[in-house]
């Protein structure tokens, strides 16, 4: 038979996978003309496809019988595998769908502790109501964690996009605005008459730092004014600052939403000196670009955006 001379191993790299649909139509109809109609091709185009398939599969596939054609044994054996293959290829290109009611995804979320405390309770309530089988890991945002966010190992982070360690290959969505205020203990001797630039620069400072090192934008502003401050304490766990500040003469400059969380009757909240008062800043949800089109992560981000819009009023 004519195909004997082609008896050698078939290399898939040499096969046009577009022929798979033509093969499915030919095996389904056992007719070149009907397969052509099914695939919206001309009959000569389908005949050429059949010739190429015969070459690739080393089998005639369809044999003339009377006024029609019949499938060869090889063609009969291929009918089900080809149908399965076409269904699998179709599934590859079918838009992904996320059903929270049955989802078992695991999300890894990183945020400074004060943001986790203020943001996550309402979000988690909705997540576990709508998606009872998902898992959430919440971790404190740190320098190493930022690297993992850059590498796509973290589902979602919260912070200021333009602040702190360099972010790469990420996308972000603004959630709410915040601004800086100062916390000191009540009765602090340097601030009996309010906050002045001289008193601010003279006081010993504590500083919030995700990495535990480096300076902040306030230090750059002070340097432009020919001043500097003495930072004697750096902390990465934001919610510990109230007890530290209440028992020392340290001053700390923090987001107002954090200050209001930790404010006690032993502390007072003051406006920074007008000469160095930083502009307001935006807290965003941040994710690696690999998660931008993922339906599960899109669902989570929508919940976060909605929850933050309901919880955080403008200052």
Helical residue percent band? 25-40%
Total domain modules: 3
Pattern of helices and strands: HHHEEHEHEHEEEHEHEHEHEEH
Q: What radius of gyration results from the CA coordinates?
A: 33 Å
What name is given to the CATH topology of the largest domain? D-Maltodextrin-Binding Protein, domain 2
Q: Tell me, briefly, the overall form.
A: rod-shaped
Superfamily (CATH H level) name of the largest domain: Periplasmic binding protein-like II
Query: How are the strands ordered across the major sheet?
Result: 4-3-5-12-6
CATH architecture of the largest domain: 3-Layer(aba) Sandwich
Task: List the topology elements.
Blueprint: H1 19-29, H2 32-38, H3 43-57, E1 62-65, E2 68-71, H4 73-93, E3 106-111, H5 113-130, E4 135-140, H6 143-150, E5 156-159, E6 170-178, E7 180-185, H7 197-202, E8 204-208, H8 217-224, E9 230-235, H9 241-246, E10 251-255, H10 256-262, E11 267-270, E12 281-288, H11 295-311
Parallel strand pairs: 3-4, 3-5, 8-9, 8-10
Antiparallel strand pairs: 1-2, 5-12, 6-12, 7-10, 7-11
Helix pairs in contact: 1-2, 1-3, 1-4, 2-3, 5-11
Please supply descriptive tags for the structure shown above.
12 strands; Arc Repressor Mutant, subunit A; D-Maltodextrin-Binding Protein, domain 2; single chain; rod-shaped; 5-stranded mixed sheet; disordered N terminus; 3 domains; 315 residues; alpha/beta
Could you explain the architecture of this structure?
With about 325 residues, the protein is an alpha/beta fold. The chain folds into three domains: about 90 residues, Arc Repressor Mutant, subunit A (Orthogonal Bundle); about 100 residues, Periplasmic binding protein-like II (D-Maltodextrin-Binding Protein, domain 2), CATH 3.40.190; about 100 residues, Periplasmic binding protein-like II (D-Maltodextrin-Binding Protein, domain 2, 3-Layer(aba) Sandwich), CATH 3.40.190.10. It is about 40% helix and about 20% strand. The chain has eleven helices and twelve strands. The strands form three sheets. The protein has a five-stranded mixed sheet, sandwiched between helices. A five-stranded mixed sheet has the order 9-8-10-7-11. Strands 1-2 form a two-stranded antiparallel sheet. The longest helix has 21 residues.
């Amino acid at each position: 038979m004519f195909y004997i001379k082609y008896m050698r191993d078939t290399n898939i790299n040499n096969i046009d996978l577009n022929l798979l649909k033509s093969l499915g139509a030919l095996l389904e109809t056992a007719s070149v003309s009907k397969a052509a109609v099914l695939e919206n091709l001309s009959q000569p185009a389908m005949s050429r496809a059949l010739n190429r398939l015969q070459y690739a599969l080393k089998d005639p596939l369809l044999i003339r019988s009377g006024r029609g054609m019949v499938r060869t044994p090889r063609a009969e054996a291929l009918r089900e595998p080809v149908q399965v293959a076409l269904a699998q290829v179709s599934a590859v290109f079918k838009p992904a769908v996320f059903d929270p009611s049955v989802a078992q995804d695991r999300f890894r979320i990183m945020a400074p502790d004060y943001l986790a405390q203020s943001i996550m309770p309402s979000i988690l309530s909705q997540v576990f109501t709508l998606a009872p089988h998902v898992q959430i890991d919440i971790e404190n945002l740190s320098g190493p964690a930022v690297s993992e966010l850059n590498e796509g190992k973290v589902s979602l982070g919260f912070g200021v996009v333009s602040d702190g360690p360099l972010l790469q290959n990420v996308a972000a969505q603004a959630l709410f605005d915040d601004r800086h205020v100062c916390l000191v203990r009540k009765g602090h001797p340097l601030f009996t008459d309010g906050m002045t630039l001289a008193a601010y620069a003279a006081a010993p400072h504590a500083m919030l730092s995700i990495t535990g090192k480096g300076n902040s934008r306030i230090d750059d502003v002070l340097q432009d004014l020919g001043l500097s401050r003495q930072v004697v304490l750096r902390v990465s766990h934001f919610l510990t600052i109230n007890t530290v500040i209440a028992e020392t003469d340290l001053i700390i400059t923090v987001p107002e939403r954090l200050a209001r969380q930790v404010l006690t009757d032993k502390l007072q909240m003051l406006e920074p000196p007008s000469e160095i008062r930083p502009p307001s800043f935006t807290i965003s949800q941040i994710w690696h670009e690999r998660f931008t089109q993922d339906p599960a992560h899109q669902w989570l981000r929508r919940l976060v955006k909605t929850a933050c819009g309901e919880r955080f009023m403008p200052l």
